[in-house]
Amino acid sequence: QVQLVESGGGLVQAGGSLRLSCAASGRTFGNSVMGWFRQAPGKEREFVAAIRWRSNWTGSSTNYADSVKGRFTISRDNAKNTVYLQMNSLKPEDTAVYYCATKFGSSLAPVESEYNYWGQGTQVTVSS
């Protein structure tokens, strides 16, 4: 069993920054991927970013949705079993509940159904 706990959400003005954290426990992550998704009111959940736990793969170790490229950065601290999402230049349209999730394997494809475990979510609200 895997447990994921998000933190770091809150209220911020447009143009501001927040850093979300996702602490993982319960298993050895080895060859797996951590992802961030978000769900705005009245909308479907959407992919935000993903990162491999290990960096010994060819090619990029991260993937981002076009809407957040250049503003958000996903990173990991393997020693702490924690993944971060640094969010800069926030916009009102970034307002959503943000979820972290994990899946086995190495694919960074933004396919929600491939993710096996999910956190409870953390609210991010960006005011204009």
Describe the SSE topology.
Elements: E1 3-7, E2 10-13, E3 18-25, E4 32-39, E5 46-52, E6 62-64, E7 72-77, E8 82-87, E9 96-104, E10 117-118, E11 122-127
Parallel strand pairs: 2-11
Antiparallel strand pairs: 1-3, 3-8, 4-5, 4-9, 5-6, 7-8, 9-10, 9-11
Brief summary of the model shown:
It is built from no helices and eleven strands.
N to C succession of SSEs: EEEEEEEEEEE
Distance between the termini: 40 Å
Strand content: over 45%
Percentage of residues assigned to helices: under 10%
The radius of gyration over CA amounts to: 14 Å
Label the overall shape: globular
Structural class: mainly beta
Describe the overall structure.
By secondary structure, the protein is an all-beta fold. It is 0% helix and 50% strand. The protein contains no helices and 11 strands. Strands 2, 4, 5, 6, 9, 10 and 11 form a 7-stranded mixed β-sheet that branches. The termini are far apart. The relative contact order is 0.32. The mean pLDDT is 92.
